[in-house]
Each structure stands twice: as structure tokens, then as C-alpha cells.
Design a protein that fits this description.
Distance between the termini: 27 Å
Order of helices and strands: HHEHEHEHHEEHEHHE
Number of helices: 9
Strand content: 5-15%
Shape: globular
Structural class: alpha/beta
Largest sheet: 5 strands, mixed
Helix content: 40-55%
Number of strands: 7
């Protein structure tokens, strides 16, 4: 699979996936810019850039959703790789912050992320099995389409536009096309 080869070709990303796998968390993935930037850099024929500003580790366990657990995991990850900015969030409680109904899994939570191309996560399973979670599919990610997801196409549109400006995606990725939400 080309996606796995892309991740394996970047030793830093492959190592980070291994580190997160070692935490042995329920329904655990790395998503957002970690995946998106790797793919978009590749599609822009760039040498893989450094790791993104944040390494977004998501997991889901409704029986262990105390924010202190996430902070402890971030401390553990910084002990292993202090040069990275780890962000760990149990998605079982994130619906409260976002004003959404309860999420059923980490993948379900990603349906409420701002962009379809950002709502992609990966993990290394046992025997280096490469797994992908993509509730909106992979087309937008690999076809360089930036599409606002769900409420970010309507009542939260300003958040989508702020992210577009703040992250300077159009400047960093000139082949990127903004599309109107296709009612997802």
C-alpha cells in the first residue's frame, strides 16, 4: 500500500507511530497534521518535512476519561521524545468541549473535526500492520482538496477560515484546492 510506504519512508514518523503503539491505549491513533502534512508534502514532491507542530494522539476509552490521564501520557511521551510537542486527548470527553453528542469511538470523533483531509489518523498495529481511520475517506487528502466538514461548513465556518489563514495552507501547498462542503 502506497500510504504505508509513505509513512515508512519517513523514519521519524514511523518511529513516532511505534512510540505511540507502545502506550497500548484503547482505540489509539495519530491524526491531523501528522498525516495530512506528510501526504501533502509528498504530493508537492517535497522531501518529507519535519514533524508537525503537534503530534495529535487520540484515543477512546469512556471508562478512563479523566484529563489528568492525558496529561500523564503527554509527560510519558515527552520523557521518550522531548523534542516533540505531544498532544494527547481521550475523545470520550471531547464532545463536551465541542458541544456535540457523545462520540462512540476515536473514528466517530473525527467526524466532528474541521476538515475532511485532517480527519485521517493512522497507527501501527502488531507486526507493523498499518491501519487507517478516515471517516470521510481519503479522496480529499490525496486529491489535495480542503473541504470543511460538518458544522464547519456552516455555523462554524469562521473557525474553518481562521484555520486556513493561521496554518497558511494555500501558501505552503499551492496545489491545494478549497472546495465547498458536499453535505457530509
Amino acid at each position: 500500500m502506497a500510504f504505508k510506504k509513505l509513512m515508512m519512508a519517513d523514519p521519524s514518523r514511523w518511529e513516532v507511530l511505534d512510540i505511540v503503539r507502545s502506550l497500548d491505549l484503547a482505540d489509539c491513533w495519530i491524526g491531523a497534521g501528522f498525516v495530512r502534512d506528510s501526504v501533502w508534502d509528498n504530493l508537492h514532491e517535497r522531501i518529507p518535512g519535519g514533524l508537525t507542530a503537534d503530534i495529535d494522539v487520540i484515543w477512546f476509552d469512556s471508562n478512563d476519561s479523566n484529563p489528568a490521564k492525558d496529561r500523564a501520557l503527554e509527560v510519558e511521551l515527552r520523557r521518550i521524545r522531548s523534542d516533540l510537542n505531544w498532544s494527547v486527548k481521550n475523545q470520550a470527553r471531547m464532545n463536551e468541549r465541542n458541544g456535540d453528542a457523545n462520540y462512540r469511538s476515536a473514528t466517530d470523533a473525527m467526524r466532528f473535526w474541521p476538515e475532511t483531509a485532517t480527519a485521517v489518523a493512522v497507527r501501527r498495529g502488531s507486526q507493523d500492520k498499518f491501519e487507517i481511520a478516515a471517516p470521510f475517506g481519503l479522496d480529499d487528502l490525496f486529491e489535495l482538496r480542503l473541504t470543511a466538514a460538518g458544522r464547519f461548513a456552516s455555523e462554524k465556518r469562521s473557525v474553518f477560515l481562521e484555520r486556513l489563514e493561521q496554518k497558511q495552507w494555500l501558501q505552503r501547498y499551492p496545489k491545494l484546492q478549497i472546495t465547498e462542503n458536499l453535505v457530509r
